[in-house]
Amino acid sequence: MSTFVHIPVLVKETIEALAVQPGGRYIDCTLGAGGHAAAILEHSSPGGQLLGIDADPEAIKVAEAKLQAYSGSTLLINENFVNLRAICIKYDFHPVHGILFDLGLSSLQLDSDTRGFSFQHDAPLDMRLSPSQEITAADIINTSSEAELAHIIKTYGEEAYSHQIAHRIVKERPIEASLQLVRAIERAVGGRKGRIHPATKTFQALRIAVNHELEYLEAALKQAINLLGFEGRLVVISYNSLEDRIVKQLTQRESKDCICPPGTPICICGHTACLWLINKRVITPSPAEVKLNPRSRSAKLRAAERIITQDESYKVAEKLNFLLAEGEANGWRRPALLKKLRMTFSLS
Ligand SMILES: C[S@@+](CC[C@H](N)C(=O)[O-])C[C@H]1O[C@@H](n2cnc3c(N)ncnc32)[C@H](O)[C@@H]1O
Question: Is the CB of 6 under 6 A from ligand 1?
Fold first, then answer.
């Protein structure tokens, strides 16, 4: 097992945004080294439960060791969060009080000398979160056309020099190692000019493409909203503008009662809000946190609370009426009725 240090980002803010409470049930979709998970378990004690998910089997091993003291309250699953709904159904872990996504990579992955995520040291250009995935970064680099490469680098890296970089890559391939790719990029666009290394955006683009990061994030967020109980919290920490845009757009859309195009005279969409945005503006790390942990500098936290939709409120009212009638017919006393109501509507 690798020994390394991953400093979790915005921990206090995450616990507050999740409104972690004793006895609560939480999902950490990006377990990593288990830093946030440990904080959630600590604050949800006694009685808290945590389902931790990570696509990387190495992360699961590290988190398992870190969370040993809470082994009776945790369920750690080596899976991709794109399968969140299926995982929760399989383990009967829903509805929940809170779901966390702390996106991107952990230090375990960034500092690995076998996976090629970083442009700072040499490693094979793999970039897969899980060894069970078929396509590596080297496969994309060495088999895509120049136009496809330029598109990936532009779309997922927002790189202004995507065409020059793609052209150079095609000229210099096969490219199998990270530093070989760095040299090709430097030859395409020159060395470091500002604060950002010239390979930063291309490496981000390849990682996103290899792991389908944006598609999977959007799919998982939609599933997460439906796994939250009433007043359950969704918290997402993102590290680049592409991720943050997806989180912002989806949560804003789901917090609106009507999503008809502007100017539509009467509502025809039938959409009803199922989220309430807790922070209108993103929460970012303090200068002190960034100083302590420079990797936190690009973090942005967004949080939303699950509210009941109009459709759901009709169903709840119907169910309530039914239960009250059943209670009256059977002569249930108050404790029995309350127990039944709790079993039907609440999380515990
Ligand atoms: C920034 S780290 C999380 C660190 C963690 N919060 C902690 O405190 O240690 C992100 C983790 O999410 C995992 N990850 C990223 N995308 C994933 C996906 N689609 N499915 C499952 N895990 C994913 C990565 O493998 C990585 O371990």
Answer: yes
Compute the distance from residue 54 Cα to the ligand 1 centre, in Å. 6
- Domain spans in the chain, listed from the N-terminal domain onward: 11-108+213-306, 119-210, 310-347
What is the 238 CA–ligand 1 centroid distance (Å)?
A: 11
Integer Cα distance of 134 and 127 in angstroms: 11
Fold (CATH) for 11-108+213-306 = Rossmann fold (3.40.50)
Mean pLDDT for the chain overall: 93
The answer to whether the beta carbons of residues 267 and 258 sit under 8 Å apart is yes
Q: Model confidence over 23-62: pLDDT tens digits?
A: 999 999 999 999 999 999 999 999 999 999 999 999 999 9
> Which residue, by CA, sits nearest to atom 12 of ligand 1?
30
The residue nearest atom 24 of ligand 1, judged by CA position, is 105
Enumerate helices (H) and strands (E) in the chain, giving the number of each: 15, 7
Per DSSP, 294 falls in state: G
**Would you place residue 347 in the very low, low, confident or very high pLDDT band (cuts 50, 70, 90)?**
very low
